[in-house]
Specification:
Layout (H helix, E strand, L loop, with lengths): L1 E10 L4 E9 L2 E6 L8 E4 L4 E4 L1 E6 L4 E2 L2 E2 L4 H10 L2 E10 L5 H12 L6 E8 L7 H9 L4 E5 L10 H13 L3 E5 L3 H13 L6 H5 L3 H18 L3 E3 L5 H12 L4 E5 L1 H5 L24 H11 L5 E2 L32 H11 L5 H15 L17 E11 L18 E11 L2 E5 L2 E2 L18
Parallel strand pairs: 1-4, 1-5, 6-9, 9-10, 10-11, 11-12, 12-13, 13-14, 14-15
Antiparallel strand pairs: 1-2, 2-3, 5-16, 7-8, 16-17, 17-18, 18-19
Helix pairs in contact: 3-4, 4-7, 7-8
The structure holds N-(aminocarbonyl)-beta-alanine and zinc ion (ZN) (2 copies).
């Protein structure tokens, strides 16, 4: 199968030029001016941007959490991702207490196998790691799961102690693996929550008011300090505020390999979105939305490379029957929100159109940097001869209004309802196959393949 993409403006993390792209089967085989050859399919990309498929390294498809499970499965969630210009996700498998690491990975393979619309990899949420399990962590890495998420939050569910974090960082770091930290002091937060509930503060906005930025900054500081002692890198997930960012910045200024991602919700939404009533449950996610002033700081962090990646932390729960579990107690609202479909266009609009970042940086933040951080580059994350033909034809001028009506995520609300943005995903190729054409899904469940990842090449 040969496909020719003609007349497009190719943007990578470093390039910006006009050329044609020949795809043979699953890969880019030639890039050149005015290519003329017999092919099966010609895509005209005149006046369009041609960018590498987005990589979202933080999703939770059908994660069992908060007494229910995330409403997107690997089929609906990856299809929605494709609609939004994302061609790779890295989802979080879970090793529950008492389970082996490999068992956790196998369980997620079963959930994803034969369902996904795009390629996918796994991190492993690690809730237990004794000395006698370190060999198994290395086996997981050999099987392509080279990053592990650990939690300083959610006591009794995912939280691990500092000794376990140190052990995991040492073991992963030794082989070039990466610990992804949910950095928030969940023990102190739980005490603050108890006090709030005792005062009758049950509305969703108290989710944010009981998780101060200093609890996140303390977690980030501690995660980086433990990583330094373990002589390993660390990657902070879903960083939400300036206080936490300053910890990363200070470490990086000292030459410490500390990395971090933020998410669109922290760039475009704020604590004001909780309001006073139960509608605020839509925005109950962890860390919570912050005061607006944090947004400019996060953009500065993205521009100056103190933040390297924009992921989504896609973890949707419907208002009906799911978020409702916490109608009378904010601490029982399942934590998480949808976003996998909206990330690429939102960052194009808020970043490039609104003059905060360059086009190259937009591609780097939404694709290339994640490929490098999580061992997928140059197979993924760029447009180059030999790379997978994961390509998005993006209309930079067309406008759209985000909202439930046009969304493909399996959830009953959209956090950006009514937001008008410039930039629309027109066509998406996943390993050379057109999966989205003029906004219509053309793929089938199981098109996506599991990605055995290598190690980080960002350091
Ligand atoms: O609220 C969130 N973020 N839910 C998903 C789990 C996590 O902490 O990433
Ligand atoms: Zn988390
Ligand atoms: Zn998450």
């Amino acid at each position: 199968m040969k496909t020719l993409i003609k007349n497009g403006r190719i943007i990578t993390a470093v390039d910006d030029y006009r050329a044609d792209i020949l795809i043979e089967d699953e890969r880019v085989s030639t890039i050149g001016a005015k290519l003329e050859m017999e092919v099966d399919n010609v895509i005209d990309a005149s006046d369009k941007l041609v960018i590498p498929g987005g990589i979202d390294p933080h999703t939770h498809m059908e994660l069992p959490f908060g007494g229910t499970k995330a409403s997107d499965d690997f089929l609906t969630g990856t299809r929605a991702a494709a609609h939004g210009g994302t061609t790779t996700i890295i989802d979080f498998a879970v090793q529950y207490k008492g389970e082996s690491l490999i068992q956790g990975i196998d369980n997620w393979h079963q959930k994803a196998e034969g369902k996904t619309a795009i390629d996918y990899g796994f991190h492993l949420i690690t809730t237990e790691l004794e000395d006698n399990q370190i060999e198994e962590l290395h086996t997981a890495m050999d099987e392509g799961v080279t990053s592990f998420k650990m939690f300083m939050a959610y006591p009794g569910v995912f939280l691990v102690d500092d000794a376990t974090i140190f052990r995991a960082m040492s073991a992963a770091g030794e082989r070039g693996g990466l610990i992804c930290m949910h950095a928030e002091n969940g023990i102190v937060i739980n005490e603050i929550i108890k006090h709030a509930l005792a005062k009758g503060h049950t509305a969703p906005k108290y989710h944010a008011l009981t998780r101060p930025t200093i609890a996140e900054a303390e977690g980030v500081h501690r995660a980086i300090a433990i990583a330094e002692m373990a002589e390993s890198p660390v990657y902070i997930v879903h960083l939400s505020c300036a206080d936490a960012l300053n910890q990363v910045r200070q470490a990086r200024d000292r030459g410490i390999p500390a990395f971090a991602e933020t998410c669109p919700q922290y760039l475009f939404l704020s604590i004001d979105d909780y309001g006073d009533d139960f509608e605020g449950a839509k925005y109950v996610m962890t860390p919570p939305l912050r005061e607006k002033a944090n947004q400019a700081e996060l953009w500065k962090g993205l521009k100056m490379d103190d933040l390297q990646i924009i992921s989504t932390d896609h973890c949707p729960f419907c208002m009906k029957e799911q978020k409702e579990l916490g109608r009378n107690d904010f601490s029982k609202i399942p934590n998480g929100a949808p976003g996998v479909e909206n990330r690429v266009p939102l960052i194009y609009n808020g970043g490039v159109v609104e003059n905060r970042i360059s086009l190259n940086r937009f591609v780097e933040l939404t694709s290339t940097a994640a490929a490098k951080m999580f061992g997928l580059f140059p197979k993924k994350g760029t447009i180059a001869v030999g790379s997978d033909a994961d390509i998005v034809i993006f209309d930079p001028e067309k406008e759209q209004t985000l909202g439930l009506k046009t969304s493909h995520m399996n959830v009953d609300y959209n956090t950006y309802e009514g937001k008008k943005i410039k930039g629309v995903v027109e066509t998406v190729l996943s390993r050379g196959k057109v999966v989205i054409q003029n906004g219509e899904y053309k793929g089938k469940p199981g098109d996506g393949q599991f990605l055995k990842r290598g190690t980080c090449v960002s350091m």
